[in-house]
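Reviewers of the previous submission asked for a worked example of the structure-prediction workflow described in the proposal, so we include one complete record here. The input consisted solely of the amino acid sequence. No template or homolog information was supplied to the procedure at any stage.
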Amino acid sequence: MKKQDTSIRTLGDLKKSAYQSKKVKDELRDNLIAKMQAGEAMFEGIVGYENTVIPEIQRAILARHNMNFLGLRGQAKTRMARGLVGLLDEYIPVVEGSEINDDPLNPLSRYALDLIEQHGDKTPISWLHRSKRYVEKLATPDVSVADLIGDVDPIKAANMGLNYADERVIHFGLIPRANRGLFVINELPDLQARIQVALFNMLQEGDIQIRGFQLRLDLDVEFVFTANPEDYTNRGSIITPLKDRIQSQILTHYPKDIEISKKITLQEAQILPQQNEKVQQSDLVSELLELIAFEARSSELIDQKSGVSARLTITAFEHLVAAAERRSILNGGEQTSTRIGDLAAIVPAVTGKVELVYEGEQEGAAGVAFGLIGKAIRTKFPQIFPNPETIKRRKLEDPFLESKSWFTENELYLGAEMSEKEYHDALHSVPGLRDVVGKYAPNLNAGDELLMMEFVLHALGEFNLINKDVADEGHSFSDLFNQLFSDEDYEE
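From that input alone, the workflow returned the following structure tokens.
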């Protein structure tokens, strides 16, 4: 990426320098090639797209295409659009005072042309940083052509004593002001169809039309759009002629495996240093958290056209750490770690991030969330321990028998606020629990061993081998058949 001499302040000095004007698409292309040749990452903080989305973006830039990022919510579409700024030159020269970032060597606006005619080589120039060459607009139904392209400004006409035939009365919209830079429209389908039509000329010819002016400004803009799949929303769609003019449509996706999903969550979650000091993050609980999102993305109770955003696991992880921190505070600031029972604390994060179909609405948002937690536990458990369903079907020796039998005459309560000692004593009161963990998950430290013992209890509950109830600020475990009988008594 060539460094410019930003000390140059006049058009004459710029002409004497080695500076050469370059189109935005060529600028992006050249800087991308330099990054690729240097082995540098194209984006910072984008994980899981290395072999899918990013190569498609690179091909689009090399082909000098406008782009549309198409995908469900929470797939880093806007972040990637903003990240393209890093492929622009650090500084470019502009005619000082120009509203549309006029290139001093190739001016477009009446203002710049008049200024250069008046001052010649003494025309003042300034240098524009790449961070100022990015314009973003969220498409909403109230966006107008004037917002995007421009309109006649009667106040300017009155102040300058101009009639409406003078092009100097024009107030430029967002797109002309993005000249020589990036212009991004988020949620393109939400833009009214008649407004989308106004984009045709800019995408195809690079010029603009304002009111009755015979005005041709050969704007230099890289257009980037983001959109959800058209069948997701009833609010609108990308009209076919506009879609035809966007040369590259790039499909985004959710993380394809647990490790990538976990990496994104840990990268994006806002965890304070003092939280990290008090709370140890358990790998098993973190993996279950990601599994909840994977289960949600295949659940029949959730509207899959809406998608399950990566923000679900990010905010859920923050809830998880906060639940453990709360326990630490209530117990005098002692060190703690995230527990299986803490997953109950993520329900507010889950219910706010999913859209339910009719059957899900009947179940209730909280019921769906607890169901997803249960499915995640059922999915993970057989990866470590024997599958209880397989044991029952094949009539194999049951390693959980001693622990299950204990619940015929006993109950166990694991409170969310339990101190580490109370948590330890409660789990060790269940016979056979530590033995089964030692057999199938050996060589664990004391903290992970306790967590795995709790995991077994929750799994036995999810496989209906013991009864598990969500109690106030905790979980209670008891005999399944006693619970069934008590339910029948209650019905009578």
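Residues 12 and 121 are 4 Å apart (CA to CA). We consider this example representative of the routine output the project will generate in years two and three.
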